[in-house]
Amino acid sequence: MSADRLVLRIAPPNASDVPGLAEWARRRGFGVCLPEAVDLPPGFEGGSVYRSDAERIRGPGLDADGSPIHRVRDAAELQTLLRGIVPGATLVVAWEGDRVIPLENLVAATHGRARLWTVARSATEVPASLGALEHGADRVLLSVDSRDAIEAAEHVLDRVALPPLEWAELRIVAQQPAGVGDRVLVDTTSLLRPDEGLLVGSAAAFLFHVASEATGSNFSRPRPFRVNAGSAHSYVLMADGSTRYLSELNAGDAVLATTVGGDRRPVRVGRVKIERRPMVQVAADDPPHRRTVFLQEAETVRLSTDRGPVATTGPLVGRRGHGVRLAPARHLGRTVTETIEER
Hints:
- By secondary structure, the chain is mainly beta.
- Helices cover 14% and strands 42% of the residues.
- The protein folds into two domains: 156 residues, TIM Barrel (Alpha-Beta Barrel); 170 residues, Endonuclease - Pi-scei, Chain A, domain 1 (Beta Complex), CATH 2.170.16.
- The chain is built from five helices and 22 strands.
- The two termini are 29 Å apart.
């Protein structure tokens, strides 16, 4: 989940601490919201910097004279707010009672018509605010008063819930050398279990589960932080549910580590290594399509199957590869509704 969707309202007990905390938050990718009366160093304003008082918030992308903060306590107040939606405007809502179901109603009503901000009363409210109806609010405003609170906000983003993954098994029907290509090693900042891995594939419609190198081989030691993920063109599933090309990964990005059909967690990329290596093409039958993944041919590269992780140097044909189905149409990694065919 992108940090710029979470705007931190900087509110330490001592107003003199506001500039330092604001800079700390900005360096971590957050937007910041500051009291109107606080003076900041030259060059700090702009970008994702907002100003607010108790009744209104001002800044980039908001209404010209600022957007009022609407406090909603019950269904009647929500209905009044819904009837007054102005196309293209920004709604800023602070919940004073129920928050999840009314937020879903508001997301459905404003989607494509208006921008929606919501005020989180605590960090525990952030995941539902960002994920309601798979879209969430455009921005969530959360008050923080210390560096510890800012770091807690980072941890919350790492735990934002994704919709359930649709796991499937496809029969592997082909395995053949694919020449030399640019393959991508993803070294994470976490230690992965042998049954954990990344979801990778040539088409977003089906991503194969590629296991970590936590097992090693007869001639190499385990590297439990690593997934030898595949060819540079491949999609990989990110922690926020978007996809990205393996070649686009950078240190600090959050990818989704999963076990087959079970646990999942965000892990950060610590390093990406792209090198020329012998590749193998694996194809699985998904009538009327064939789903493919290009992996390095090596004993340490394992594809998850119905018989456990199997190295790409071993026989894969006839086994069933584990993976996840996704919506096939993507624009900049996000799901879109359009007609598409990937081969």
